[in-house]
Amino acid sequence: MAKVHSTLSPSVQILQFPTCSYSSYVSREREVFTIWMKSLVLNSSGCAVYNSKGALVYRVDNYNCRWNGKVYLMDVRGKVLIEILKKSSLFAKWEGYRWNDTEIKANSWFKVKKACTIFKRETPFCKFWSDTGCLMNYKIDGFYNKSSCKIFDTSSGLVVAEVKRKVTKSGIILGDDVLTLEVEPNIDHSLIMGLVLVYSLMNHSI
Length: 206
Prior knowledge:
By secondary structure, this protein is mainly beta. It has one helix at about 190-200, and strands at about 10-15, 30-35, 45-50, 55-60, 70-75, 80-90, 95-100, 110-115, 125-130, 135-140, 150-155, 160-165, 180-185. The protein contains 1 helix and 13 strands; from the N terminus they run βββββββββββββα.
């Protein structure tokens, strides 16, 4: 894939730390998801994520509270996979925590810090890191107040995931609330969804 360059978009640097075992959320093939930026719960904010076969795989429900300081990424059964917490409103700091079957893990999986900007045209900058060590270095390029973005490996310049407006087979571009998420092989889908959620929260689109 070609390298991605954007001067108008917010940039996010990501350091990823997956578990040692081959995660059930990692595929050896390229995966395509559909993100519907609507909650499945009545009078609630959130989103629903479907795989290429049309099956629901992820969901987020904020229960009538947009831009919440605590957001849960859940599977189709409502099991919490990642808890995303906003640690600072002033400096826009976010932390993502993985959940076991019944409890949250003590150490954060990733942390996000959005740089303070004086001028609106200035590019926000964020860092994702872990307390245990670095395995991969990612970066997100997108446009302010837009849901579309690309996540790429800064060491190789290759795109590992992309979010964009969904286009039907007949070429019709759907609304801003229906997106396509493309994830390259051997990338943790739950991590990508966590990053997409933080990016959406930063842009006030969820």
